[in-house]
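User: Run a structure prediction on this.
Assistant: Running it now.
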Amino acid sequence: MQICTSVNGRALDEADFFPVFERVTRKHDLPVWMHPARPATRADYPGEPKSKFEIWQVLGWPYETSVAMARLVFSGMFEKLPDLRLITHHCGAMIPFFAGRAETLWAQLGSRSADENYEELLKSMQKKPIEYFRMFYADTVLGGSGPALRCGLDFFGADKVVFASDCPFDPEGGPMFIREGIRSIEELGLSEGDKRKIYFANALQLMRMVQEK
């Protein structure tokens, strides 16, 4: 099932949307793939009418994914649905690159918020915040960047990364992203086992098309 990072401007952690996650997880036992949503009409600065230079897509979409991930983590989604398998577009967006910042600053959740009792929220969580972020899955859509993919793999592990291409949304109408996505995997010097997981084995398990070992 595909969802967007927001629904008509509403956050995915709102109670109205929980039954969707619950049904796909508990009844259908299938993964959810999350695609970012942010229109050009959402300006980069409050004093402007719209986003310029397609910043809304190039930078805005990964930001929207990261925000949605954080809202799901701190709403307790993975504690309510520990078997939820949620695949993030663009290899976890900003989270792998900012993992150090996310880990150290969210470990102090509440220290910068006088009007919210986040310290109690932090105490109530069964794991450290960063460990919940590692429960997400990620796809390989990074425009063919090997270093970015390496960062995502280091964060999530090869068991939680699946091949994707973003076809046909490239300058060639599809072939480029497929070709460059494969190249980015091959240039990392991964084991044959890890490559097999990324190319198809992880996806087959997520879709329950093979039995997990």
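The chain is about 45% helix and 10% strand.
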